[in-house]
Design goal:
The chain has one domain (14-120). The protein is built from 4 helices and no strands. Helix content is 74%, strand content 0%. By secondary structure, the protein is mostly helical. The protein has helices at 11-33, 44-66, 71-93, 100-120. The model has no long low-confidence stretch (mean pLDDT 89). The two termini are 25 Å apart.
Length: 122
C-alpha cells in the first residue's frame, strides 16, 4: 500500500473543493467588476481592492485544486462562471449593452464548461 496515497474522501470532503472554487469565483468577479474604478491602477484603494480580490481568488482556486479537483475542470468552471457573471454585472450595473454577440459568446462558454465537465467525469 502506498503510504502517500490519500484515502477516499468522505461525502463532506468531496464538496469542499467546490466551496473553495465558489469562493474563488466570487473573489475574481468582485475584483474584475472593480477594475474600471482603478482608472488604470492610478487610484490606490480601488487598486488595493482589485489586487486583494485577485489574490484571494487564486489562493482559493489553488485550495480547490489541492483538494483533488482536476485543474481543467476547476479552470473551466472558474473562468466560465466568472465570465457569465461579469457579462451579467456589466449589463445590469455598468450600463453595457446586451448584444447578440454577448449572448452567443456566453452560450458557447456554457457549452464548453458543460462538455469539459462531462468529459472530466469519466
Amino acid at each position: 500500500m502506498d503510504p502517500h496515497a490519500r484515502p477516499h474522501p468522505s461525502p463532506g470532503e468531496s464538496v469542499t473543493p467546490y466551496l473553495f472554487l465558489a469562493g474563488a469565483i466570487v473573489a475574481e468577479v468582485f475584483a474584475t467588476s472593480l477594475l474600471g474604478s482603478t482608472q488604470g491602477f492610478s487610484r490606490l484603494w480601488p487598486t488595493v481592492a482589485v489586487l486583494t480580490g485577485y489574490g484571494i481568488a487564486f489562493a482559493m482556486l489553488a485550495q480547490a485544486i489541492a483538494r483533488d479537483m482536476q485543474v481543467g475542470i476547476a479552470y473551466a468552471l472558474w473562468s466560465g462562471v466568472g465570465t457569465i457573471l461579469i457579462v451579467g454585472i456589466g449589463i445590469l450595473f455598468l450600463k453595457e449593452p446586451l448584444t447578440a454577440a454577448k449572448v452567443a459568446g456566453v452560450a458557447l462558454v456554457v457549452a464548453g464548461v458543460v462538455i469539459l465537465n462531462l468529459a472530466g467525469s469519466h
